[in-house]
């Protein structure tokens, strides 16, 4: 059993810190452009070594009592909680999330998720009787986890925690843009008692390390979170070995505000979901659908609320929107804002260019458009930045048509009278819908319809993703 994990950004393979090749990837603070760390640029050989370690560790880990596996994941949750401030400041430095958000969500959510999976094991139906059959839920094997930069630890824990409880071993490729908390997790996992080879980390790029994981014959499942474009590629590469693929991809979710909603609450809450993490959230609500007769009132409320979103240094407690996670992401978001103006959407807040007083760093101006055409580029494509599009509709059927009128289906919101809002929520072709600003539930399944992906994360459904089903007739 490993007792020590890397204190510096390295691969973590078979219970040991592995430096990798001489090629390094810079980790850049998007607020300043400063290189804050470097990680090794992994290779297919590094992946093969990690898969070999995970394969060797699998029989012993799979045979470990589920209660013991769950206890170890519970200790991981406790270890992450002890290091919450370090995690928060690390994520703020590597991808620009405001420190208040990093503490509230980036550091705290992984603790809640890990603890929730640890608690599931005791009551989970590992076996059941169906007629003369014994149905057994067993670990799937070696899991390849490929995760994004926007919630760098949350997305990792959402895959690693259920995989470990299920009895799987893991090879993780964290985002090369925000990889540093993967090293913290390796330390915490080792201290919690995760045996050598059960959890492995290989840094590197998607085209090299990600594709090597997806293609590897020794990997039994790939769980990927990222863009729809990248998800298509992962699925295509993984198809060569017919392994299971779980995809949590992009979104263009709608917040449907009905004419009997509490407008002030609906707009303020909806804007908060749209602008959270600088809009760099797959489950954000970038489309606000409003009755045409109420659009002017909604615009007034949205502009007033947006004025409270201070843009600036993510290390400042007062900042609500930091930089985009990279200069490339800033340019992408700003390009969409320019496209919205060029296509004739009514700009009511923000716009192209840099926020005043921020000549450097990957900053954009939080932006709101009104009178947005439902089929326009800014209403159809995932911008992944603090850009809200207000889209007028006439009647409930029209609202549902617009809400369902993209290739995505990840999340959404409905505000209005409870029964009517629930009826609208049932009609939305999306994996998760909040009614009147309901609280996040880490036990509820999360995942997408259509090109937002397949499979589910969190709770019992998330645990089942990492298990095979065997039927034994007697």
From TrEMBL:
<dbReference type="InterPro" id="IPR016163">
    <property type="entry name" value="Ald_DH_C"/>
</dbReference>
<dbReference type="InterPro" id="IPR016161">
    <property type="entry name" value="Ald_DH/histidinol_DH"/>
</dbReference>
<comment type="similarity">
    <text>Belongs to the aldehyde dehydrogenase family.</text>
</comment>
<feature type="active site">
    <location>
        <position position="248"/>
    </location>
</feature>
<dbReference type="InterPro" id="IPR015590">
    <property type="entry name" value="Aldehyde_DH_dom"/>
</dbReference>
<dbReference type="InterPro" id="IPR016162">
    <property type="entry name" value="Ald_DH_N"/>
</dbReference>
<dbReference type="Pfam" id="PF00171">
    <property type="entry name" value="Aldedh"/>
</dbReference>
<keyword id="KW-0560">Oxidoreductase</keyword>
<dbReference type="GO" id="GO:0016620">
    <property type="term" value="F:oxidoreductase activity, acting on the aldehyde or oxo group of donors, NAD or NADP as acceptor"/>
</dbReference>
<feature type="domain" description="Aldehyde dehydrogenase">
    <location>
        <begin position="23"/>
        <end position="472"/>
    </location>
</feature>
<protein>
    <submittedName>
        <fullName>Aldehyde dehydrogenase</fullName>
    </submittedName>
</protein>
<dbReference type="InterPro" id="IPR029510">
    <property type="entry name" value="Ald_DH_CS_GLU"/>
</dbReference>
